[in-house]
Amino acid sequence: MSNILILGAGRVGATVAEQLVFEHHNVTIVDDNPANLKPLSSRLDLRAITGSAINPHVLREAGAEDAELLLAVTPTDELNMVACKMAYQLFRVPTRIARIRNTEILAYEEMLSEDVGFAISQVITPAQIVTDYLVRLIKMPEALQVLDFAEKLVQMVVVRVTANAPMCDKPLQQFNTVLGDVDRRVVGVYRDNRYVRPDGDTVLHAGDEVFVLAPTRQMRKVIEALHTQERPIERILIAGGGNVGFRLAKALQKDYQVKVLESSAVRSEWLGTELTRSLVLHGDATSENLLDSEQIAQTDLYLALTSDDEDNIMSGLLARQMGARKVIAIINRSRYVDLLQDSRIDVALSPAQLTIGSLLAEARQGDITAVQPLRRGAAEAVELVVHGNKSVSRVIGRRVDELRMPAHAFLAAIVRDGKVIMVHHDTVIEANDRCILFVHDKDDTRDVERLFAVKVGFF
Hints:
Residues 1-124, 233-349 form the RCK N-terminal domain. Residues 144-228, 369-454 form the RCK C-terminal domain. One of its GO terms (molecular function) is potassium ion transmembrane transporter activity. This is Trk system potassium uptake protein TrkA. There is one protein chain. It is built from 15 helices and 22 strands. It has 4 domains: 3-124, NAD(P)-binding Rossmann-like Domain (Rossmann fold); 142-226, Regulator of K+ conductance, C-terminal domain (Alpha-Beta Plaits); 235-349, NAD(P)-binding Rossmann-like Domain (Rossmann fold); 357-452, Alpha-Beta Plaits (2-Layer Sandwich), CATH 3.30.70. Helices cover 31% and strands 26% of the residues. The chain has a 6-stranded parallel β-sheet with strand order 3-2-1-4-5-6, sandwiched between helices. Strands 14-13-12-15-16-17 form a 6-stranded parallel β-sheet, sandwiched between helices. The protein has a 5-stranded antiparallel β-sheet with strand order 7-8-11-9-10. A hairpin with a 4-residue loop joins strand 18 and strand 19. It is an alpha/beta fold and 459 residues long. Helix 6 packs across helix 9.
């Protein structure tokens, strides 16, 4: 159990606070607006302090002297940077993470150093995290989720089985016949929103959501066995030219036909000068006439990326009704994401959920290198590094079928010396293996960490 101090009770701060409380950490959250803190303190077992993130007295009252991790996620880059410096200089907080939106700052590494900079251990940029995730989805249109592990050597994807796919109405053991020598591991199947523990006899049906792990270079073949291949995405309409919309258009405009629809005249003009290969339009994304004039029926992908959830939902549903082939929407309120499950919006994304993975990794026991929330936080994929030897490790030198794995956890793959190994019952774990696990019930997360962590006294 760690003492964690969160500065900023906005969407990211509130989401990560809820998750950390669920994992039984001691959490204190600071915000200068009492209205942001009240709903958190009323439903979560945490301390809520009203005050400035860069006031030494407030930080002391919030327990900075005993904090092991500081998360500075206020809306202001400068506040987050100064807060990290103060946490290090005055209270020697071991790990300090700052949210920074201005990427120009990141070009100067000395700005982050402990000696001459702001003593920032790690930077997160939510807009870039969301942008990178959307790019992966666009490149793999059949997938509902695409996650990278082990420096992109391994991927986990979520795919909905289609009626004419080679594996539809077949048991998982038929994968070997369908794919030949392509190795993969199915770690979860969700049918009618209920988890089905996969084994060789599990028959896949149309509509099932399949969670599958495979080497990145072979993932395309795995997807084609589960989902009828879709034609590549070419025409993209982005509604919302904010941080995410701008970054995404800039990343895509060389390879796709991109239109950006922005409601602010001033922002539209600025976007027009920055996005030289995109068509920038000024207007309302919920206008049926505007969408029709921009040939929404010929659009392969419509992305609703404004800062307003209701506008994203309405414009996304309208775009689909008018003929857009696929719709992705950013939704900040988690309850809305649940409501949109299995709706005419193909993918509903919570930026806060995408962002908290890197924050959760710092709070976990053991050498956790990645945490990827799944199923709106109910499940997760974890990447960790195994350390030690047989005398101090519960897993090193042991076969997978000898491990006391929690009931709701799968050890799916190992990366060893740059080689991807799909785990079988007789796979033996070695020191420094990068292990990738799927945990479909978050109650088992702590047990997984304890199993793979070295015994006390190793370090």
